[in-house]
Automatic annotation (TrEMBL):
UniProt organism field: Stieleria neptunia
Signal peptide per UniProt: 1-23
Chain's gene name: dcp
InterPro entries noted in UniProt: M3A_DCP (IPR034005), MetalloPept_cat_dom_sf (IPR024079), Neurolysin/TOP_dom2 (IPR024077), Pept_M3A_M3B (IPR045090), Pept_M3A_M3B_dom (IPR001567)
E.C. number(s) listed in UniProt: 3.4.15.5
Domain Peptidase M3A/M3B catalytic intervals: 265-716
Protein name: Peptidyl-dipeptidase dcp
Required co-factors: Zn(2+)
Gene Ontology BP, a term: proteolysis
Co-factor note (free text): Binds 1 zinc ion.
Entry's Gene Ontology cellular component terms: cytosol
Family named by the database record: Belongs to the peptidase M3 family.
């Protein structure tokens, strides 16, 4: 049993898989179905090469529910054995024993998490609705186990801590405090109410997520006339044609309701009415007053979170969530956000003024003049970029081949950490799109596996994320990590090179940063491995890795034209560098508006919140520009309503970026992002240590001092 891990991380999207600590079963009752599960591959230790691999090719979805019942029963029995141990509590017989408990549930969770995120079709949504409450109750059964808590308390208060390592002290301290935060000290009636709240929340989280998936699947903007494709690059038109063919309309073109399809259409289409239609369809997901509208669900989630926080002795949900983070309290997050917000809004005003000038100049007749609206922002931003910097990102895209960029990421990993990537053989995958590489170290020793699932498809969540199928650990029986990166790029046709945008390339490196965080892990206990760090620290390593994309070494060797093989011209590189802070008003405001709304929702004292009204009032209160939306509108804000994972935590991207900006300046001061001493320090103090040390100490050891937040303003051009 590990503490709830950060199992799936993303740029603009982080998903916690169903987790290891969420359901309750009576361990004294085992159904006939559960007895029959003993031979299920879902419960057996993984076999095969590399210390065992997930048996994707043998999974039968009809076995999931019974498998979870059996795995939960076994995990509960493991916990009961620890809690009732007649021997005095020690770190070894209690904490280490908990780290080793519930391994079948760990493996099952990893497999089902992929089905709920990457293969959410057929019976999976209904299975998730059944399984989620069971897992929620199991989590409560652990945290509310009085005998187990007393053993942890005895260790927490004992002299044994004096002889422990720093990592061991940190583990027991965190475990004890987590139990307290999760209700271990409540009375029986309050524990029962807490269990009910958590069960209700797990059901609502699942319903919220499934509604978002449904609105992404069922809403498509159809283009019937070829003339309506004016302005769109050939690659975008081709992807729209393939999307239409897949949906049975080969004579039309389809804009699907995902960011990867919406964004390029709004950037390049000259058809303003169609831009508005695509924009409204995307930003109104789950806010259409129909069966998949999420507003009622959000009201219930917020009310239950508020009640739970009060029950646990916290003023608000945000106070409860932030206690174990670097920020500690909501006030600290507001201080940082309020420092950046006015500068970002001022930059938006400048950006819109530049756009409006071009829009006015484009109007041949005064009657054709427009006022910049949200569906115009991306389109005119590209025009401004070209006018101000002579940079057309459409000229850059032919040099951004997905496969060459993947090779570039591998090369960077080799330079920074000594990793080598070799295609893995005889490893099953869960979809034909997925490929697997073995990762080895400088000495040729096996480090782990990296899975890559790059393409969009029906039943796959939108966005991009990293998932850990198995985390690194060394408790006598060493286990190597298995991680994956998941994206939603538009696949090419047969023999067609897949090209991606510059922003997508940044995202690709970001997610790979999460993967390297997991692969670099060198700790003993799984609860402290890889990305299992404070929520507002976990994005730091991944955001930092973005900086290696535009290093000369990567640009010249891996950003090559898909037809000629020529490297990205220095003239274009210079323009990219010069325009590095372009459109930072839009990027910062659309993100920060979501982060502020998140924090205000979770510090509000309202009993029943109308999400749409709250969003509107909050944006008006903070002075949100009319010309752009929040990055994630409340009805589809999956970060904060598909689980507790990023609730009152969306600020963390900005918090981590303050660390990132300062750390990046260290490499710039050294004269190279490949400086051997700095790379060594980055590995030793950030990537490999997991949660064995305080993240502030890790950063301090790397940088030689506390973070300088002014670097964040310099990075964004403010």
């Amino acid at each position: 049993m590990k503490r709830l891990p950060i199992a799936a991380l993303s740029f603009g999207f982080l998903i916690l898989n169903l987790g290891l600590l969420r359901a309750q079963e009576d361990t004294n009752t085992t159904t006939t179905e559960q007895k029959g599960m003993t031979d299920s591959v879902l419960l057996k230790p993984w076999t095969g090469p590399y210390g065992g691999v997930p048996p994707w090719d043998l999974v039968r979805s009809e076995e999931f529910i019974d498998a979870f019942d059996a795995a939960i029963a076994q995990a509960s029995a493991d916990i009961d054995t620890i809690a009732t141990n007649p021997e005095p509590a020690t770190f070894e017989n209690t904490v280490v024993a908990m780290e080793k408990a519930g391994q079948a549930l760990d493996r099952l969770d990893a497999i089902f998490g992929v089905h709920s995120s990457n293969l959410n079709l057929g019976p999976i949504p209904d299975i998730e609705r059944v399984v989620a409450p069971k897992l929620s109750a199991h989590s409560d059964s652990i945290y509310q186990n009085s005998a187990l808590f007393e053993r942890l308390k005895a260790i927490y208060e004992s002299d044994e801590k004096k002889s422990m390592t720093v990592a061991q002290v940190r583990l027991i301290d965190d475990l004890y405090k987590t139990f307290v935060r999760r209700g271990a000290q409540l009375n029986a009636s309050d524990k029962a109410r807490l269990t009910r709240i958590n069960a209700d929340l797990s059901r609502l989280f699942t319903d919220f997520s499934q509604n978002v998936l449904e609105d992404e699947k069922r809403f498509v903007t159809w283009v019937e006339q070829e003339s309506d494709l004016d302005g769109l690059p050939e690659s975008v038109v081709a992807s729209m044609k393939r999307a239409a063919e897949e949906r049975g309309k080969p004579d039309q073109w389809a804009v699907t309701n995902t960011r990867s399809s919406m964004d390029p259409f709004l950037t390049y289409s000259t058809n303003r009415p169609l831009r508005e239609q695509v924009w409204r369809t995307y930003y109104n997901r789950c806010d259409n007053g129909d069966e998949h509208d999420n507003n009622g669900i959000i009201t219930e989630i917020l009310a239950l979170r508020r009640e739970r926080a009060k029950l646990l002795g916290y003023p608000t949900h945000a106070h409860w969530r932030l206690e174990p983070t670097m920020a500690k309290k909501p006030e600290a997050t507001f201080a940082l956000m309020n420092q950046v917000w006015p500068k970002a809004v001022a930059r938006v005003t400048e950006e819109v003024a530049d756009m409006q000038k071009i829009a006015d100049a484009d109007a041949s007749d005064p009657a054709e003049k427009i006022t910049i609206e949200p569906w115009d922002y991306r389109f005119y931003a590209e025009k401004v970029r070209k006018a101000k910097y002579d940079l057309d990102l459409g000229e850059v895209k032919p040099y951004l081949q997905l496969e060459k960029l993947r090779e570039g990421m591998f090369w960077v990993a080799g330079e920074l950490f000594g990793f080598q990537f070799t295609p893995a053989k005889d490893v099953p995958v869960f979809h034909p799109d997925v490929r697997v590489w073995e990762v080895t170290g400088r000495d040729g020793q096996h480090v782990g596996l990296w899975y890559f699932d790059p393409y969009a498809r029906t039943g796959k969540r939108s966005g991009a994320w990293m998932t850990a199928y198995r985390v690194q650990q060394n408790m006598g029986d060493a286990k190597t990590p298995i991680v994956s990166n998941n994206s939603n790029f538009i696949p090419g046709g047969q023999d067609e090179t897949v090209l991606i945008s510059w922003d997508d390339a940044v995202t690709l490196f970001h997610e790979f940063g999460h993967a390297l965080h997991g692969l670099s892990s060198d700790v003993n206990y799984p609860s402290q491995a890889g990305t299992s760090v404070a929520r507002d620290y976990v994005e730091f390593p991944s955001q930092l890795l973005e900086h290696w994309l535009d290093t000369p070494e990567v640009l010249q060797k891996y950003c090559v034209h898909y037809e000629t093989g020529q490297p990205l011209p220095q003239s274009l590189i210079d323009k990219i560098k010069k325009a590095s802070t372009f459109n930072q008003g839009f990027a910062t405001v659309e993100y920060l508006a979501s982060a502020i709304v998140d924090m205000k929702l979770h510090t509000s004292d309202q009993d029943r919140i109308d999400p749409d009204a709250f969003e509107t009032e909050t944006l008006k209160e903070i002075g949100m520009p009319d010309e752009l939306p929040m990055r994630h509108r409340t009805p589809h804000f999956a970060h904060i309503f598909s689980s507790d994972s990023y609730s009152a935590g969306y600020y963390s991207y900005l918090w981590a970026d303050a660390l990132t900006a300062d750390a990046a300046e260290a490499f710039e001061e050294a004269g190279s992002y490949y400086d051997p001493e700095l790379c060594k320090s980055l590995n030793e103090n950030v990537f490999s240590v997991g949660d064995t040390i305080d993240p502030a100490d890790g950063f301090r050891r790397f940088r030689g001092r506390d973070v300088d937040t002014s670097a964040l303003m310099r990075k964004r051009g403010f």
